């Protein structure tokens, strides 16, 4: 590890006080890890791949606004830069957006800064309360808060934590369209051997993320691929696609299902799957934290590596 | 129609000189239609639904950067605002991005403005030639060109047409990552009866776009749905998904396949499909322009409605 700290480090999509930072703090015990912001999701992948950090935390999907395409594109790994980077954990963070400003009221606000995803998640509130106010996209909600700290005619959509960090007023709280606005983050690691071992007898479930392409000249190739999961009793939890960029209108598919890649029936399914798809890659197996959410996991031991074990 | 012009009008995602404007000019004869820019994709849908224009032109998908999620979200129609708005045509536009500036060389450029999709499509060139230069997201490439026209320290990623309109230098041409960088646009119409009739005996093919949800409590429901297309011999040409926003991690799926919704075998397939999916909606059938691209369609008669007929 290149870090000079005696503690292993965790890279996250920064800046400080970002939702990724909060997700990293959910997963790793601050007494045992140091945390390093990175300016872009690609920089987190690069730090993990190079061994400059022990883990990385990146956003993957939001319950209101869908997949984070930048993360999907990095998993596509079209330049083969991240061949040793795998997913070893996931975490879910409830996202509550606020309108922050140094102005005393919304009537003084002429511009709103935020990340495009955050604008997308607050569309209803903005349509009702800020119609005609200019919107300016910036790279993160925390960056937006930083910008408006010096601009009394502007507001930011960001977290309550960002208001504290940048000394801003909360003009409106919980302005997200859906009360169930949750972002899912992945924990990245560079060594597949570090992936969590198969949980046995704990009543817990694992999930596995795959990427693959299909021969688009063969009609029904995607259907044949998905049918394998059904035939082997593997329930799909997520499906997404991105352009392969090798051929126009040719796609990389991402499929997540319940099961660990080490389990015998999963390995049998993957062997079958290889008959129907190309470039199959196992991106990682990890504990299903979504099912645990109703079980008070926040109070349980820190996950992924907080107790010094891989699971 | 609310338009005061004697000619029927076509709304497109503006401003003038945008790629949507170029796509609209590809589809409709300027001698027979007037063209109206709209500030947002939602505004194009609204104009079509309200009958304020005869047609709308919106971007749907880019071959390098994937689906335009704003358009998908409007097709989801979660607020039931666009129940009479359908797709009646498609067109493909080759997209060549340029770096435009009033500066004489790249070395004077401290900021680059563009749409997030355009940044995504020029990632390789930017990494090699403009590392460390600040990137500022704006709502369109043409807006970016407009902004930098008055800022000698800035550049825009936009079209060559935008350079002419705003009097900018082309510092670098064709900077997109993929030589096959193509954007697909949909033509919207408010009356499903206006959709193109089934082509018979012309050797042409039609495509149909559907949206549906599946009961996420039923394992394999998506697989069962996709299998129907295979069983009825309908080849899928596109699949996409967006969060339903009704329940977290519940999705609206978009499937496009070869065939017209009026054709007998397609209607049989749709009847079968209804057994496996919820909220099935036919978003339109239209002539497959992708297959026609190699056949010199640019020189052929204007499509969709340019010759006064629906096809």
UniProtKB/TrEMBL annotation, chains A, B:
Keywords: Amino-acid biosynthesis, Aromatic amino acid biosynthesis, Lyase, Phenylalanine biosynthesis. GO terms for molecular function: prephenate dehydratase activity. Pathway: Amino-acid biosynthesis; L-phenylalanine biosynthesis; phenylpyruvate from prephenate: step 1/1. GO terms for biological process: L-phenylalanine biosynthetic process. Its EC number is 4.2.1.51. It comes from the Eukaryota. Residues 9-190 form the Prephenate dehydratase domain. Gene3D superfamilies: 3.30.70.260, Periplasmic binding protein-like II (3.40.190.10). One of its GO terms (cellular component) is cytoplasm. It catalyses: prephenate + H(+) = 3-phenylpyruvate + CO2 + H2O. Residues 210-287 form the ACT domain. PANTHER family: PREPHENATE DEHYDRATASE P PROTEIN (PTHR21022), PREPHENATE DEHYDRATASE-RELATED (PTHR21022:SF19). This is prephenate dehydratase. It comes from Tuber melanosporum (strain Mel28) (Perigord black truffle).
């Amino acid at each position: 590890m290149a870090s000079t700290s005696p503690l292993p480090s965790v890279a996250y999509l920064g800046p400080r006080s970002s939702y990724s930072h909060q997700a990293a703090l959910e997963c790793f015990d601050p007494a045992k890890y140091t945390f390093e912001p990175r300016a872009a999701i690609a920089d987190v992948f690069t730090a993990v791949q190079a061994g400059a950090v022990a883990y990385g935390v990146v956003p993957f999907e939001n319950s209101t606004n869908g997949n984070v395409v930048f993360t999907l594109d990095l998993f596509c790994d079209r330049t083969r830069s991240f061949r040793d980077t795998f997913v070893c954990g996931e975490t879910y963070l409830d996202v509550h957006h606020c309108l922050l400003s140094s102005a005393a009221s919304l009537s003084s606000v002429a511009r709103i800064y935020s990340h495009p995803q955050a604008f997308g998640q607050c569309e209803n509130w903005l349509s009702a309360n800020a119609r005609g106010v200019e919107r300016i996209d910036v790279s993160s909600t925390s960056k937006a808060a930083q910008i408006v700290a010096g601009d009394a005619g502007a507001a930011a959509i960001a977290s309550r934590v960002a208001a504290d960090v940048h000394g801003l007023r909360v003009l409106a709280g919980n302005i997200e369209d859906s009360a169930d606005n949750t972002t899912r983050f992945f924990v990245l690691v560079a060594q597949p051997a570090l992936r969590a071992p198969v949980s046995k007898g704990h009543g817990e479930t694992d999930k596995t993320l795959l990427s693959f392409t299909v021969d688009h000249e063969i009609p029904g190739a995607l259907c044949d691929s998905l049918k394998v999961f059904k035939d082997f009793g593997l329930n799909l939890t997520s499906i997404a696609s991105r352009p392969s960029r090798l051929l126009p209108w040719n796609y990389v598919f991402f499929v997540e299902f319940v099961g660990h890649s080490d389990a015998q029936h999963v390995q049998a399914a993957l062997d079958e799957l290889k008959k129907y798809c190309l470039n199959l890659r196992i991106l990682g197996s990890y504990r299903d934290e979504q099912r645990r959410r109703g079980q008070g996991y926040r109070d349980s031991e820190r996950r992924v590596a907080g107790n010094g074990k891989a699971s």
